[in-house]
Design goal:
The complex is a heterodimer of chains A (402) and B (159). Chain A is mainly alpha-helical. Chain A contains 18 helices and two strands. Chain A has a single domain, classed as Na+/H+ antiporter like fold, CATH 1.20.1530.20. With 159 residues, chain B is of the alpha+beta class. Chain B folds into two domains: 65 residues, no CATH class; 78 residues, Alpha-Beta Plaits. In chain B, strands 1-2-3-4-5 form a five-stranded antiparallel β-sheet. In chain B, strands 6-7-10-8-9 form a five-stranded antiparallel β-sheet. In chain B, a hairpin with a 7-residue loop joins strand 4 and strand 5. Chain B is elongated and about 75 Å long. Classes of the chains: A mainly alpha (402), B alpha+beta (159). Chains A and B meet through helix 7, helix 8 and helix 13 of A and strand 1 and strand 4 of B.
Chain lengths: 402, 159
């Protein structure tokens, strides 16, 4: 099969999976992921008697995978605005702090309790901690909570998480790439933060220069310049044994300082959507579901504990913002959703020898379940609240959702 | 009226307008130009979506709300704004004291401050009419001037 036919077939499957998910009011991310798992070379290799194994060109898949990862992190960097954090520092940092301590802590406890090594535990903690900005924002729009007060703690928590991800990824990639020795980790940590300091300094002090370098009237040239800078810096980072994801994050952060931020976002979004979709499929393609067997107890425990964890931390954050009980409960329900960054970690875990077998597959299965659970909780919050009988403010009706 | 502006990462900007009685209007401006308008009757209620419009239509709607898109026309005084001045049409009735006088005699500019820019007689319009022109019943004076000038013209023409 030619690369074009393979890519076309892959895009068709992505489109079908996405449309199906959308039809059932679910997020598209778990659908792309599931499509990848079904099509991959590992079981299930047939569905209703039809063979489903699809082996596209490995080089093409790797490219999609890398570009998707880089663009996802680039956008994360583009959105992180320290001004957002400091505009309402007390409440934003309280909500973000509660979230980090409860859910990050829970992740560490899970890793330790199931006897994983420190590196794997760090990965598990990240997977369990990070809610999905993409899916949650989309859900908030769908159910209309975006115009309600509960959107403030939800979005505030996501902003803090995005900041933590930058530090966390730098740390994690240093540990993973450092080869396990203390000395190796120290060297790669120093290299990592050194490289980031350079990118951050250019972004911070060279805003005018960066702006002049990318600014152009023509949309296509802006797209190409931004894409070129981002991919090149990410590629260079890999040469220095630094995570491409972290580098892309900082390029996004540097460009966010320019006046072209909104235009860049507008122009780059379609590219991100395309490559991110292919990234999710690629992660699924490489997942061997049989490996989940060993991690099954961890998976079950993580799902139960982390639903409770986000519900509790979200509820507390809502109270910090002075919201009613009902609205605070919604904060927790919305934040249950995990997505793209748990998958970024899954893909990191797959390629790293230092991470225990099965952790990547655990992350994938966990994200699938949590994305579905989170969106469902958000969508049917009205009915669930009715069933539980906690109509604390009876006037509240999910009118926008209907 | 207080307006709160917040960034919604990955979506756009959110504006909350506080109204009387705790009601809030929430406008969400998406990066792709789409706008959504929500209304929240009070703090305890959920937001109801009122409408969503694309960029060009949102701008049209905005300028209508602003009063800049359509100029409301009052039926009894068809005026057009020219800064402080307006253009008005005044009909010279049969009993008007001006009938039979030349424009030089009437000396409209000196007496009212308004400027006669045209004279309509039947279907014919004379732009910048000659000062020897004699006014006839049924003539329409087209005058540019302030509201005070227009009132003075009306007083002058009235029998």
């Amino acid at each position: 099969m030619s690369v074009l036919v393979q890519t076309g077939a892959m895009l068709l499957l992505v489109a079908v999976a996405g449309s199906l998910a959308d039809r059932f009011g679910q997020s598209v991310i778990p659908a792309y992921l599931a499509a990848g798992v079904v099509l991959g070379p590992y079981p299930p290799t047939e569905l209703f008697g039809f063979p489903t194994t699809f082996t596209p060109d490995e080089a093409a898949v790797t490219l999609f995978h890398e570009l998707g990862l880089v663009l996802l992190l680039f956008f994360l960097g583009l959105h992180v605005d320290l001004a957002d954090v400091f505009a309402d520092a007390r409440r934003v940092l309280s909500a973000g702090g509660i979230d980090l301590v409860v859910n990050g802590g829970l992740g560490v406890l899970l890793g330790v309790a199931f006897g994983y090594d420190p590196v794997s535990t760090l990965v598990i903690a990240g997977v369990v901690y990070i809610s999905s900005s993409a899916i949650i924002t989309k859900s908030l729009l769908d159910v209309g909570w975006i115009a309600n007060p509960e959107s403030d703690p939800i979005l505030g928590t996501l902003v803090v998480e995005d900041l933590v991800i930058a530090v966390y990824l730098t740390l994690l990639s240093a540990v993973v790439l450092g080869g396990g020795t203390v000395e190796g980790v120290a060297v790669s940590l120093a290299k990592g933060f050194g490289f980031l300091a350079v990118v951050a300094a250019v972004g911070w002090y060279g805003t005018d220069y960066v702006e002049r370098a990318v600014t152009t009237e023509r949309d296509e040239l802006l797209l190409l310049r931004v894409l070129a800078v981002t991919v090149l810096v990410a590629g260079l980072a890999v040469q220095f044994d630094i995570s491409e994801a972290v580098a892309a994050f900082f390029v996004g952060g540097a460009l966010a300082q320019t006046d072209e931020k909104d235009r860049i976002e507008h122009i780059m979004s379609p590219a991100r959507d395309l490559f991110a979709a292919l990234f999710f499929v690629a992660v699924g393609l490489h997942a061997d579901v049989r490996a989940i067997g060993d991690a099954l107890p961890l998976l079950v425990a993580a799902i139960v504990a982390s639903v409770a964890g986000k519900l509790a931390s979200g509820y507390l954050s809502g109270r910090v913002y002075g919201l009613t009980e009902r609205r605070s409960a919604r904060v927790g329900a919305a934040l249950v959703t995990r997505g793209e960054f748990s998958l970024v970690l899954a893909s990191l875990a797959m390629s790293a020898d230092a991470v225990a077998n099965g952790v990547a597959e655990f992350a994938i299965a966990y994200t699938l379940v949590m994305a579905l659970l989170g969106t469902t909780l958000t969508r049917y919050e009205g009915r669930i609240a009715g069933l539980v009988g906690r109509h604390t403010d009876a006037t509240t009706q999910s009118s926008a959702a209907s | 009226m207080t307006v709160y502006e917040t960034d919604v990462p990955g979506v756009g900007k959110k504006y909350e307008l506080e109204r009387r009685g705790g009601e809030r209007l929430v406008v969400l401006v998406h990066h792709d130009g789409k706008r959504e308008l929500f209304r929240r009757p009070d703090d305890d209620s959920d937001s109801e979506k009122l409408l969503d419009v694309d960029g060009p239509n949102a701008r049209k709607l905005g300028s209508i709300l602003e009063g800049a898109y359509f100029q409301p026309v009052e039926a009894d005084s068809p005026g057009v704004p020219l800064g402080e001045s307006i253009i008005d049409w005044t009909t010279v009735e049969e009993e008007s004291p001006l009938v039979g006088h030349t424009l030089r005699d009437v000396d409209l500019e000196e007496r009212t401050g308004g400027t006669l820019v045209a004279l309509q007689r039947g279907t014919h319009t004379m732009g910048n009419p000659d000062s020897d022109t004699r006014l006839e019943a049924g003539d329409v004076l087209v005058v540019v001037g302030s509201r005070n000038s227009q009132e003075a013209v009306a007083d002058l023409v009235r029998p």
